[in-house]
Write a structure and sequence with these properties.
Blueprint: E1 2-5, E2 15-18, H1 32-38, E3 43-46, H2 65-74
Parallel strand pairs: 2-3
Antiparallel strand pairs: 1-3
Length: about 80
């Protein structure tokens, strides 16, 4: 799942927020995405495989850093 906040005015560089362990994209939703969108950035937050509403939650222990890199590249 990718969350997105569009900017009021556009900055050239979009931002991608990636969570750590025991959380998902939602952790950026309340404060960070709105703050940076207000500053004019296209702000995105990604839930890595097995986290949040993504598939694979029951197999979370089988994902590796390579799987997470693929998630970021695909985004």
């Amino acid at each position: 799942r990718v969350l997105f906040r569009s900017p009021g005015r556009a900055q050239a560089t979009p931002l991608l927020f990636i969570h750590g362990a025991y959380t998902a994209a939602w952790c950026w939703e309340e404060h960070f995405l709105p703050f940076f969108a207000e500053a004019g950035y296209a702000a995105y937050a990604l839930s890595l495989s097995g986290h949040g509403a993504t598939p694979g939650r029951k197999h979370l222990d089988s994902f590796s850093i390579n799987d997470y890199v693929k998630d970021v590249v695909a985004t």
